[in-house]
Amino acid sequence: MLTLSNVKIAYSDRVILDNLDFTAEIGEIIGVAAPNGTGKTTMFNVIANFVRPDSGKVLFDGKYTYKNEKEELIIHKKLATFPEQKDLFEELSGVDHLKLYANMWNGSTKNVGSIIERLQMGHYVKRKVRTYSLGMRQRLCFAMMMAADTPVMLMDEVMNGLDVDNVALISDCLLEMKKDKLIFVASHLLENLDLYADRVIFLKSGKIVHELRFTKDNDTYLKLEMIPEEYETLKEDRTLPKEHLFIADRLLCLPFSDMNIAEQTVWIERMLNYNDGEMKIGPLGTVEYYEKYYA
Ligand SMILES: Nc1ncnc2c1ncn2[C@@H]1O[C@H](COP(=O)(O)OP(=O)(O)OP(=O)(O)O)[C@@H](O)[C@H]1O
């Protein structure tokens, strides 16, 4: 549905996206993880054509690119970007904003009532935006995306300023929405991405350094916190599996899926001597890969 081929962009001498290749389909939520200033927003800006890449192209439905205004219009009917709070109109109400987005992209306001109900905005949405808190504004921005109801959505920092309950609410909505959409979410709430993303891409030095796919077939690891000195001692006897990881100088991860039960039992018994025997068994999540690449 969406293809980025060889997308390159640099500011002055600094390469932000370095010949990026990427394909995504309807029905996916794709998390984008990377530290501040890496290029998440730049990637979204290129997808939306707010910024022209130095080379490479963005292709929608296998045929539309940003080669002329006609095609740009076709693409922009399919694509909405998460509004920034500073772009809200202080003197308009939340309902006014929702109607605006619904009319602009969807051509109908018939879903506005159910969106307000789903996002529990009924008690404030008729007031002017200037009276809203940060969290109320953020929920309105998300509601505007729901009102636009486009097949492609670029959500930058969607959870900013939301409390735990609202993060859970928006996460549930994302899962409900994804069936007929391709949704990108750039976020620093890493654990939250594990709850709804189908895959998470990690950007580093302009490239995708890792793609984490959440499937039931993901490799399982035995995970245990230890200090670097303990890890070094353990390494000396040369029995650690070759594919083990020691992430961020704190987390030992032993690949468990490939071991037989006897080997697994031996390692669990050995690990009981560390960290009061506190260990976890499961696949690696976004936090662990993030630490692997950026710690
Ligand atoms: N118009 C511009 N001119 C010059 N440099 C820019 C421009 N836009 C972005 N950059 C630089 O490109 C880099 C990537 O910025 P970008 O906003 O894409 O990062 P990000 O990963 O979204 O960061 P954050 O997590 O802070 O939102 C930064 O170093 C930024 O300063």
What does this structure look like?
This protein is of the alpha/beta class and 295 residues long. The chain has 2 domains: 2-213, Rossmann fold, CATH 3.40.50.300; 221-294. The protein contains 10 helices and 13 strands. The protein has helices at 40-47, 69-78, 94-106, 112-118, 134-148, 164-177, 190-196, 228-236, 261-271, 286-294, and strands spanning 2-11, 14-24, 28-33, 55-60, 79-81, 152-156, 182-186, 199-204, 207-213, 221-225, 245-247, 251-255, 280-282. The strands form 3 sheets. The protein has a 6-stranded mixed sheet, sandwiched between helices. A 4-stranded antiparallel sheet has the order 11-12-10-13, covered by helices on one side. A 3-stranded antiparallel sheet has the order 2-1-4, covered by helices on one side. α3 packs parallel to α5 (134-148). It is globular, with a radius of gyration of 22 Å. The mean pLDDT is 93. Bound molecules: adenosine-5'-triphosphate (ATP).
Topology, element by element:
Layout: E1 2-11, E2 14-24, E3 28-33, H1 40-47, E4 55-60, H2 69-78, E5 79-81, H3 94-106, H4 112-118, H5 134-148, E6 152-156, H6 164-177, E7 182-186, H7 190-196, E8 199-204, E9 207-213, E10 221-225, H8 228-236, E11 245-247, E12 251-255, H9 261-271, E13 280-282, H10 286-294
Parallel strand pairs: 3-7, 3-8, 5-6, 6-7
Antiparallel strand pairs: 1-2, 1-4, 8-9, 10-12, 10-13, 11-12
Helix pairs in contact: 3-5
Bound molecules: adenosine-5'-triphosphate (ATP).
The site of adenosine-5'-triphosphate (ATP) has 10 residues, from helix 1.
